[in-house]
Amino acid sequence: MEARLTSVVVYPFKGAAGIAVDAAEIRITGLATGGVADREWMAVDRDGRFVSQRELPRLALVRPAIEDGRLVLSAQGLAPLALAADAPAPAREVTVWNSQVRGFDAGDDAARWLSSAIASDVRIVRFDPALPRFSSRDYAGDSGAQVRFADAYPVLVIGQASLDHLNERLAARGSPPVEMNRFRPNLVLDGLEPHDEDALASIEIDGVVLKPVKPCTRCQVTTIDQSSANAGLEPLRTLATYRRDDRLAGVTFGMNAIVIAGAGRRIAVGSTASCEFDF
C-alpha cells in the first residue's frame, strides 16, 4: 500500500529538540542534514554516561540549528553555542546504555554553556565515526545496521494515524491532546491505519528501503511537554491501557527501522512511501 511522508526530523543533539526539514540524507546510521548526523552530539555526566530528558527534562528547551556545517545550540538567556565537527578535541570513552563508545569532548566553554542551559553539570561530546556502533543483531540481524548516539536503531517511524488514535483516547479520558514531538520520530507517515507501522516488512521512499525491526518501547520522556519541559502523567498512562507489549516488558509506540538499501540518497517530505506488510 502507499502512504505519504509528511514529516522528516533530525535530532543532531541527543535529547535536545529536533530540526524539521523538507528533505534529509539517509545514511546507514540514520538521517543527516547540512553535514550533521542524527544524534552526532550528546551530553554526558562527569562519569561519561549519557544523559537525556529522562534525567534532565530541560534538554527539551535546547534548540539546535545547522549553520555552515556547524551545530548551533540555542537556549533562553544564553548566547548561541556553535560546535564544529572538525575542531580539535580530546577523545574520551563514554557510555550509551550498555555500549562503550568513543567520543570527542567539546571543551570547557561548551560544557559551561550546556550546564548553565539545563542546570546540571554536564559535558558535550561528539561521536567518533572511526569506531562504528552497531545495532543489536537480535533485531537487526546481519544487516550491519549502525547508529551514532541514538539509543539503539537508526530511524524511528510513526504513522500519523497512531497519534490521532491516541489523542482520541486521551479526549475520551478528559485529557488534552499531545503533539508528535513527544515521541521524537524521524519519519511520520500519513495514510496508514493506527499502528499499521507495527506490521510493515519494508518501507520504500525515494529509492531508500527501510525495514522496521522492533517496536519502540516508551518511557517518561513522552510525558514531557517539549515546549515547557514540564512533565505529567499522560500520554504514558493512557498508552499503558492498550499498547503494553509483554514481550518487551513495556509500552510501545512507533517502530525502530534500519536502512536496507539506498544509503546516501535523500528523502523528502511529500514523497510516496511504498509499504509492504509482513503477512
Protein described:
The chain is mainly beta and 279 residues long. It has one domain. Helix content is 11%, strand content 40%. It has a seven-stranded mixed barrel with strand order 1-17-16-21-19-18-23. The longest helix is centred in the middle third of the chain and has 13 residues, at 160-172. The two termini are 13 Å apart. The mean pLDDT is 98.
Binned, the helix content reads: 10-25%
Counted by DSSP, the helix tally is 4
Stretches where pLDDT is under 50 for at least 5 consecutive residues are none
What is the number of E strands? 23
> Globular, elongated, flat, extended or rod-shaped: what is the shape?
globular
Q: In sequence order, what are the helices and strands, one letter per element?
A: EEEEEEEEEEEEHEEHEEHEEEHEEEE
The tally of structural domains comes to 1
Q: Round the Cα radius of gyration to an integer and report it.
A: 18 Å
Which class do the helix and strand fractions yield? mainly beta
Mind sketching the topology for me?
Blueprint: E1 2-10, E2 19-21, E3 23-27, E4 30-33, E5 36-37, E6 41-44, E7 50-51, E8 63-67, E9 70-74, E10 81-83, E11 91-96, E12 99-105, H1 108-118, E13 123-127, E14 133-134, H2 137-140, E15 146-147, E16 155-159, H3 160-172, E17 187-190, E18 200-205, E19 208-217, H4 236-239, E20 244-245, E21 250-261, E22 266-268, E23 272-277
Parallel strand pairs: 16-17
Antiparallel strand pairs: 1-2, 1-17, 1-23, 3-4, 3-22, 4-5, 6-7, 6-13, 8-9, 9-10, 11-12, 12-13, 14-15, 16-21, 18-19, 18-23, 19-21, 20-21
